[in-house]
Each structure stands twice: as structure tokens, then as C-alpha cells.
User: Which sequence fits this backbone?
């Protein structure tokens, strides 16, 4: 139901009363502010969802959206959407308070134009609130008979046996699809786990051969090869976020030993450097395996270092290996200060 508001409060209340007495649900456009596009979309949706549209006109044009009043905008939208419209125009001879007339000449002309538009369809003329109440109620009953609409019904009343059967069928189908999806996801997880296990076995069988320069050496000497699985164990925890080339070099140097011990040299002597091209080749191998990648994090322009991170597959590999490490840890009780003991025999050899 739509009209100008301030000058027609009593009349609107009487029409709303009549709609309620007919057992229907009124929706007054005054419930919404049409001040912005979002609110207009709400108004438009309510008009589309209504079965009948009632417009009431007196002697005010009302607030405008540009040159057009909101009441006219709503009316034209209802007509465009094919909503049955019922118009009520005040009788020109009816007594009406002087302060409820338009005084602006432009507004008077626009109001008359709007009246002519509404009168282009059958309308009812009214003289006061009680008169409007009776005529609106009768007109609505006639409209419901001549143009029956779906109306608003309880959801339980709208469900016939066919709809209920279809819902049951769809529910069963949905449950079956969920079960199949769950099985597929589990199969995919098993396939992914098998792929990581096989990749780990290949990494354990392949070694990275490289050289290093130890203190006191003038030349590069051959270092003890490291299996790619061992390299991953050493580097991956530091790449959960990212690790720089310098970090990687430090980790490799700490775990580097001469291939052939030198008499008189300390067995745990650490090299002073690792060839850059050899280290980059090793990282490239991990990139090709899908386990590592250049870091995507931003760094200051002045920072010239290269950074490396684990891929999603690399993170998953690290998770799997960590779970296996924990599973191989043996727990045993023993006499300690607090009455408990922890013995770890499963730590990987570095």
C-alpha cells in the first residue's frame, strides 16, 4: 500500500485495519526509507512479492526522487511488474484541511499528472477515512475474486504429497552423494599419502654430491654425500616460513664432513663455504620435485638475498615425516625426580 504519509496517516490506518479484517497481511511502503538505492531494492522486492498494490491519493504529491514522487515511482513499478493495482483518489468536492494541499505550483502540476495516470485505470473516489475504509475493503474482495493470486501461506500447508516425495528423494540422493564424496576424499588422501611415501623412498635412494672448502685447504674437496631425504629433514623445518640462501648454507655447512678424512684434521671440522652453483642446483632439484619454491613474501629493496619456502606439497611431506617420527618414539617409565621418564630412541641420525 502506498501514498503520501504525513497527510494520510488516519486514512492509511483505516485501510490497514480493513486488510487485516479480511485476513490478509498489509505492507505499507512507509515502513521503508527510499533515500538510497539499497532501500529502493528492498521496496521493489516487497512490491514484487505482494499480491495487490493499493495507492491512495489526496492533495499532496509527496517527497520526490528527482522530479518524480516516491509514491508515483512505486506505483509505476507495480504496474510494470504486472501487480494488480487498486487506486483511490479523493473526491474533489470532499472537505479537506487547508494545510494538506500542495502550494508549490510545480508540485500541483505533477500531482494532477499523477492523478490522471492513476485514473487511466478504474479507481474509487473517497471523501474521508471511514468512506475509504469501506470502499477499499470492497474493492480488495472484488480484486481477489476477479484476479486470484497465490498469497502468503504457511510452508506446511504449501507442501503437497508430490513435493514431500520429491524432497525425500532429493534428501536421499544428497546423503548418497555425500557418502560417495567422503569415499572419494579418503581415496584421494590415500593416493596422496602413497605418492609422498614413494617420493620419500626415491629421495632416500638419491644423494647430493658436492664439494666444500675447509679451513686450511687451498682447493675445494669432495664432501660426504647427503641423501635428499636427509637434506629435506635438515632444511624443511627452517622453510615453514622462509629461509635465506645464507641460512641454507649455514645448515649445510654444519652437517658437512669430508668424504676422505685427512690425517691430523679434526673429524668434526666444518667447511668455511659451499659452492653457490652446487647449492642452487640442489634447491632446483627440490623445486622440480614440487617440495620447495622461491618465497613469495616481500622484502626491502635493499635486501638482496634470495629466500625459499616449502610448497603445499612440501608442508604435507614435512607433516607426514613428523608424524612418523613421533610414532617411532618409544615412551617408557623410569625413576626421575618427578616419577616419570621419557626415552627417545627414534630421533633420525643427522
Assistant:
Amino acid at each position: 500500500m502506498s501514498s503520501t504519509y504525513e497527510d494520510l496517516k488516519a486514512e492509511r490506518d483505516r485501510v490497514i485495519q480493513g486488510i487485516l479484517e479480511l485476513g490478509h497481511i498489509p505492507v505499507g511502503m512507509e515502513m521503508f526509507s527510499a533515500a538510497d538505492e539499497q532501500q529502493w531494492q528492498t521496496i521493489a522486492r516487497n512490491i514484487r512479492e505482494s499480491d495487490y498494490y493499493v495507492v491512495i491519493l489526496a492533495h499532496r504529491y509527496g517527497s520526490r526522487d528527482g522530479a518524480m514522487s516516491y509514491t508515483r515511482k512505486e506505483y509505476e513499478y507495480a504496474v510494470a511488474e504486472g501487480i494488480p493495482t487498486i487506486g483511490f483518489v479523493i473526491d474533489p468536492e470532499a472537505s479537506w484541511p487547508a494545510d494538506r494541499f500542495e502550494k508549490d505550483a510545480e508540485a500541483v502540476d505533477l500531482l494532477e499528472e499523477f492523478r490522471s495516470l492513476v485514473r487511466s485505470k478504474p479507481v474509487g473516489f473517497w471523501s474521508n477515512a471511514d468512506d475509504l475504509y469501506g470502499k477499499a475493503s470492497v474493492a480488495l474482495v472484488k480484486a481477489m475474486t476477479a484476479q486470484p493470486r497465490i498469497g502468503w501461506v504457511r510452508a506446511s500447508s504449501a507442501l503437497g504429497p508430490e513435493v514431500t516425495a520429491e524432497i525425500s528423494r532429493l534428501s536421499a540422493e544428497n546423503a548418497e552423494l555425500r557418502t560417495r564424496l567422503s569415499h572419494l576424499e579418503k581415496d584421494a588422501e590415500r593416493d596422496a599419502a602413497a605418492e609422498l611415501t614413494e617420493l620419500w623412498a626415491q629421495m632416500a635412494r638419491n644423494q647430493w654430491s658436492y664439494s666444500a672448502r675447509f679451513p686450511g685447504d687451498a682447493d675445494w674437496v669432495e664432501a660426504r654425500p647427503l641423501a635428499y631425504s636427509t637434506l629435506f629433514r635438515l632444511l624443511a623445518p627452517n622453510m615453514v616460513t622462509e629461509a635465506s640462501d645464507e641460512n641454507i648454507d649455514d645448515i649445510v655447512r654444519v652437517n658437512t664432513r669430508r668424504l676422505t678424512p685427512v690425517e691430523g684434521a679434526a673429524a668434526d671440522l666444518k667447511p668455511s663455504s659451499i659452492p653457490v652453483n652446487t647449492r642452487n642446483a640442489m634447491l632446483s632439484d627440490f623445486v622440480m620435485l614440487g617440495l620447495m619454491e622461491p618465497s613469495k613474501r616481500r622484502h626491502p629493496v635493499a635486501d638482496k638475498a634470495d629466500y625459499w619456502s616449502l610448497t603445499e606439497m612440501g608442508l604435507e611431506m614435512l607433516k607426514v615425516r613428523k608424524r612418523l617420527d613421533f610414532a617411532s618414539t618409544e615412551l617408557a617409565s623410569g625413576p626421575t625426580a618427578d616419577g616419570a621418564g621419557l626415552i627417545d630412541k627414534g630421533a633420525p641420525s643427522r
Q: What stands out?
A: The first strand starts at residue 2 and ends at 3.
